[in-house]
Write a structure and sequence with these properties.
With 474 residues, the chain is of the alpha/beta class. Strands 1, 2, 3, 4, 5, 6, 17 and 18 form an eight-stranded mixed sheet that branches. The protein has a five-stranded parallel sheet with strand order 8-15-9-10-11. The N and C termini lie far apart (54 Å). The protein has helices at 16-27, 42-47, 49-66, 68-73, 85-109, 167-170, 187-198, 218-229, 331-345, 374-384, 399-404, 432-444, 449-452, 464-473, and strands at residues 7-12, 32-36, 113-116, 118-123, 126-131, 134-145, 149-151, 164-165, 179-183, 202-207, 235-238, 240-246, 251-257, 263-269, 271-274, 278-280, 307-310, 313-320, 359-361, 366-371, 388-394, 410-416, 422-429. The chain has three domains: 7-47 and 90-151 and 279-352, FAD/NAD(P)-binding domain (3-Layer(bba) Sandwich), CATH 3.50.50.60; 164-276, FAD/NAD(P)-binding domain; 358-473, FAD/NAD-linked reductase, C-terminal dimerisation domain (Enolase-like, domain 1, 2-Layer Sandwich). Helix 3 (49-66) packs across helix 7 (187-198). The longest helix is centred in the first third of the chain and has 25 residues, at 85-109. It is globular, with a radius of gyration of 24 Å.
């Protein structure tokens, strides 16, 4: 450490991105401090990945044990299935407390200085922290911004955090409304519809775009719609805005046609979850102190080394990772970005490849993907002059899926026909989130389908759905 600085690295924000960066920084020999204004662990640990997966796990057990047809097929009979909402909520809350404690302790063990308060840039290589005892200033050779994101609430939507709420409140599972509207059919909306329907709630899903599950590969979305929505008798609206939502009992929702802007219907429901995505938490970070402006969507612009960009050039000693960069708003992406940033801070030139970072929705069954979907691949092929090939295999032909009685699902492989380069893989089915990592590693290593087709997979396993897809490609 240069003696003129208090620290080699100061990290603002102790979410998954900041935590991953701090651990790697200490291992790399940097004297490190991390500043946090809220709960250690950020959104993922406290209001996102961790509590939502606990709810999905518990409600998934209820769904599984309540499916008498499925169980009878395998010769299993069970009585009535009962659950306690409070106990399920406590399961999620206890898990959050444990992981938050583990995260904090891991920083303390490595002697990372934890500073509680609101941190922001105070100048070049300088930060200020507003604490209970006043404002303090620290200097660092490098500063890493990890402020994260917050739920996006569209205009016209009133939030009372009880009858109209975001995922921040939904993970607490303080109630199980008889009829709940979910605004948005992306990952958040799908996962909570899975939880609520398993626990007996009726759902109305409202999507502003013309298709449900926008962003998913079309073949995956088609099957997912049947299994996760149609088979559960979830009422859906497409191409419709919820232009006004008024909390209360009942909640009033005015629906407007997305194209004509005409009011088409008014719903009265017991509760409403606003799952319309997330926006960067980039306000009051002091970016103006070093002449940085966020882009039109509020994100901090960075390059693939995670350096903050100003006028097209990297700003010395200033870095940013996680949701606030808008690259991939995923916890594990933020952690990976943090490691890349630290490597570059230490003089080890590294860049991040977003195409090999997988993503998953933990519904029942799960959805996962890595790389490009088919429309994206086709567009790339048109621009670069190559033809795209696709292959599909179905879980209903997989021995392990048949043994489990879980045959709803598909694996889709997207590749270049000329070189065999793997461009993307999309899976819907049991344990899809675990299966996708093989494909992610293959894309990271630049593997071709011609090589992947000769890999030997254990039998009988679910991984054979990918094995068969790779073999069909050649």
């Amino acid at each position: 450490m240069t003696q003129t600085f208090d620290y080699d690295l100061i990290i603002i924000g102790a979410g998954v991105g900041g935590h991953g960066a701090a651990l790697h920084a200490v291992k790399s020999g940097l004297r490190t401090a991390i500043i946090e204004a809220g709960d250690m662990g950020g959104t993922c640990v406290n209001r996102g990945c961790i509590p939502s997966k606990a709810l999905l796990s518990a409600s998934g057990k209820v769904r599984e044990l309540s499916d008498s047809k499925h169980l009878n097929m395998m010769g299993v009979q069970v009585g009535s299935v009962n659950f306690q909402r409070e106990a399920i909520a406590n399961h999620a809350n206890n898990l959050v407390s444990k992981i938050r404690g583990d995260l904090t302790n891991s920083l303390k063990r490595l002697k990372v200085d934890i500073i509680y308060g609101w941190g922001k840039i105070a100048g070049t290589q300088k930060v200020s922290v507003i604490t209970d005892s006043g404002e303090k200033f620290f200097t660092a050779k490098d500063i890493l911004l990890c402020p994260g994101s917050i739920p996006f609430v569209p205009p016209g939507v009133q939030i009372d955090h009880k009858t109209v709420f975001t995922s921040d409140e939904a993970v607490k599972l303080e109630s199980l409304p008889h009829w709940i509207a979910i605004i948005g059919s992306g990952y958040i909306g799908l996962e909570f519809s899975d939880v609520y329907t398993a626990l007996g709630c009726e759902i109305t899903m409202i999507e502003a775009l013309d298709d449900l599950m926008p962003g998913f590969d079309p073949d995956i979305a088609k099957i997912a719609k049947k299994v996760l929505i149609d088979d559960r008798d979830i009422e859906t609206y497409k191409g419709v805005f919820a232009t006004k939502i008024i909390p209360g009992s009942p909640v009033i929702i005015e629906l407007t046609d997305a194209k004509t802007k005409e009011k088409i219907e008014t719903l009265e429901v017991d509760a409403c979850l606003v799952a319309t995505g997330r926006i960067p938490a980039t306000k009051n970070l002091g970016l103006e102190k070093v002449g940085i402006q966020v882009n039109k969507r509020g994100f901090i612009e960075v390059d693939d080394t995670m350096a903050v960009i100003k006028d097209g050039q990297p700003v010395p000693h200033l870095w940013a990772v996680g949701d606030a960069t808008g690259k991939m708003m995923l916890a594990h992406a933020a952690s990976g970005q943090g490691v890349i940033a630290v490597e570059n801070i230490c003089g080890n030139a590294k860049t991040i490849d977003y195409r090999c970072i997988p993503a998953a929705a933990f519904t029942h069954p799960e959805i996962s993907y890595v790389g490009l979907n088919e429309p994206q691949a086709v567009e790339l092929g048109q621009n670069e002059g190559f033809e795209v090939g696709t292959t599909k295999t179905f879980f209903k032909g997989n021995s392990k899926a048949l043994a489990e009685g879980e045959t709803d699902g598909i694996a889709k492989v997207i590749y270049r026909k000329d070189t065999g380069e793997l461009l993307g893989v999309h899976i819907m089915g049991i344990h899809a989130s675990d299966l996708i990592q093989e494909a992610a590693n293959a894309i990271a290593e630049g593997k071709k389908v011609q090589d992947l087709a000769f890999n030997i997979h254990a039998h009988p396993t679910l991984s054979e759905v990918l094995d068969e897809a790779f073999k069909r490609a050649v």
